[in-house]
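Fold this sequence, please.
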Amino acid sequence: CKNLAPVWEELAESFKTASDKVIIAKVNADEHKDLGKRFGVQGFPTLKWFDGKSDKPVDYKGGRDLESLSSWVTEKTGVKPKTKKPTPSAIEMLTDRTFADKIGGDKDILQLQPTWESLAEDFATESMVLVAKVDAEAESSKATAKDQGVTSYPTIKFYPRGSKVPLDYTGARSEEALVTYLNEKAGTHRSVGGGLNSQAGTIDVLDLILAKVTTGQTLASVSDDISRIATTLTDRYAEYYSRVATKMSSSSDYAQKELKRLEGMLEKGGLAPAKKDDVTSRSNILRKFVVDAEEKIESFKEEL
């Protein structure tokens, strides 16, 4: 009964929209012994089909899996089940043929045995990171497993982009530990759950310049330095630092107001993954400006 219970729930859910034609029901024969005796229930679980016209059921003797049960109901009623499409895996399966094509390319690759779907989901939006797996027992990938020295399971290997030489992962097997490892190796800023951490978007060299505000320099002078250095950087958000610094030179509360607006967008939700990453990164940068401005005020208070 316990093994069938989850399958039975799925079966009921798949025919839920046709409840006027099909009812997936269950009876606890221990509590309703008269019913159990009436219909000859001697073992559990016992499956019987009632056509809605007769009180004499037909014993079901087919498979106890969802597919077999659904097919039986459809055969008897003509009603097709409505099932939810499974979420496609974010992990890419590599074979002897595809392994050579992927390894050494333009992506950092973490090879996992067995499947760790949650980790793959965390990095699903990172175009330069691929979480993959190899079935070392499958005929299509045995040669790859042997060539890569896989002798025990699970074996975890990291392949830096542009290299066919892997690094053996020997750290903890928790999702958090693996996310940290991938971030360090791939230069990403993911957190458990797939979002971005508080460092995403920030640029160390510009943060160091911004920190000068708390040592007595004016925001105007710092703004010039940030704009000058930003033009020499290739980081995506270097120009955003310059823009915020310029706006704060004429409006000291710009960062605080803009941060509040972006936090409202994140709280409301509904953002596409790429947009959510962008808003999170810009929010992280704005916090650098807000924190430094607040520290500057505190410094002046102490001097007074």
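Confidence is low (pLDDT under 50) at residues 295-304. The first helix runs from residue 5 to 14.
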